[in-house]
Amino acid sequence: MESIIAYGIALLAAPLFPGFILKVKAFFAGKKGPPLLIKYYTVLKLFRKGSVYSTSTSFVFRMGPTVSFVTAAMALLFVPIAGASPVLSFHGDVIVLFYLFGLGRFFTVIAALDTASPFEGMGAAREVYFATLAEATTFSILVIFFRLNGALSFGEFFAGTNPITVWGGAGALLLLVIVSLFMVLLTENSRVPVDDPATHLELTMIHEVMILDHSGPDLALIELGAFFKLLFYAAFITCIVQPLQFTSPWLHALLFFGIMGLIYVAVGITESITARLKMNLVPKFILTSFALVFFAAILTTRVVS
Amino acid sequence: MIHLTDVILSITILSVLLTLGSNRLMALVKIIALQGVLVSLTPLFMEHHDKLTGGILFLTPITVAIKGLVIPAFLFFAVKKASIRREIEPIISYHASLFAGLAMILVSAFIVDRLPLNLPGSHALLLITGITTLAAGLLLMMGRRKGITQVIGYLMLENGIYLIGTALAREVHTLHVLEFGILLDLLAGVMIMGIILTNINRAFDDMDTSLLMRLKD
Amino acid sequence: MLEHVFLLPFLIGVIVMFLPAQYGRAGLIIAAALHLGLTLMGWMGKLSPVTTGYFSTAPEGMLVLLVTSFIFMLIAIYTLSYLRETELRNEPVFIGCMLLFLATMSMVALADHIIVLWVAIEATTLVSAPLILLSHSKAALEATWKYVMICSVGIALALLGSFFIVLSMDLGGVRVPLTFTSLNTVAKSLDPVWLKAGFIFVMIGYGTKMGLAPMHTWLPDAHSQAPSPASALLSGVLLNCAFLGVYKVHTLMVNAGLGSYSSNVLMGFGLLSMFIAGVFIRNQHDYKRMLGYSSIENMGIIAFGIGVGGLASYGAMLHLIHHSLIKSSLFLSAGNIMLAYGTKLVNKVGKMPSFLPKTFGVFFAGFVGISGFPPFGMFLSEVLIIIGAFRAGHYWGIGFFIFCLILIFAAASRLVMRMCFGDTEETIQVEENLMRVAPSFLLLLTSIVLCVWMPAALYDTIQNAIAMIGGAFNG
Amino acid sequence: MDTYLFSLVVILVGGILPLFTYKKFTVMKAACVIITAIGSFTGLYAALSFLIHPVENAVISWPWLHHFEIALQMDAMAAFFLIPIFFICPLATLYSFHYMHHEKQSGKTAISYFFSAVLFVSMALLTTANNMLTFALAWEIMSLSSFFLVVFDFRNKETRKAGYLYFIFAQAGALFLFAAFAVIYSQTGTLSFDSISAMPENMKLIAFVLAFMGLGSKAGVFPLHIWLPHAHPAAPSPVSAVMSGVMIKMGIFGIIRFYMLLAPAGEIYGQIILVAGMISGILGVVYALGVHDIKRLLAYSSVENIGIILLGLGLGMLGVATGNSTMAAFGFAGGLLHVFNHSIFKSLLFMGAGSVIHKAGTGKINELGGLMKTMPVTGKTFLVGAVSISGLPPFNGFVSEFLIYYGAFYGLAHGSSFLLPMLTIISLAVIGGLAASCFTKLVGVAFLGEPRTENAAKASECGIAMRISMVVLALSCIVVGVFPEPFVHIVFRVVSGLPIAATVSPTVFIDLVRNISLVAVLFLGILGITMLLRKGLYSGKPMAKGPTWGCGFTQPTVRMQYTGTSYAMSIVGFFRPFIHSENVYSGIQKIFPGKTTYKTKVSDRAESAILETVVKPVFWVLDKLRWIQHGEIQLYIAYIVLAIVILLLAQ
Question: What ipTM was assigned to the predicted interfaces of this complex?
Answer without folding.
Answer: 0.93
